[in-house]
Amino acid sequence: QVQLVESGGGLVQAGGSLRLSCVASGRTVNPYAMGWFRQAPGKEREFVAGVRWDGASTDYPDSMRDRFTISRDNAKNAVYLQIDSLKVGDTAVYYCAIQTRYLWHFGTPRAPREYDYWGQGTQVTVSS
User: Fold this and answer.
1) Contacts of 63 (CB under 8 A, 6+ apart)
2) Does residue 103 have a pLDDT over 90?
């Protein structure tokens, strides 16, 4: 069992930056891929970024590659998401997730169904 707790969300003006954090407990995150997703009202959960278990590889949708940066610190059992040049369209609940079904997986999964545990989410609201 893994518990994930996100933090760092809030209300920010367009053009600003935020750094989201996700800390895990119950199991070390070291061997597992982790990811960030977001969900806006009335929309499906959307893949934002993924990071391989060792941090050596990251993955982003093309639309997010320029402004989103995922990183992890296995010693702190944490994963982070830096968001720069925030836009009103970035408004959503942001979730972190971990894939525990595979150890030392070389991929960074994109589909929500490929993740096994989720945090409760942190709200990001961008004002114009």
Assistant:
1) none
2) no
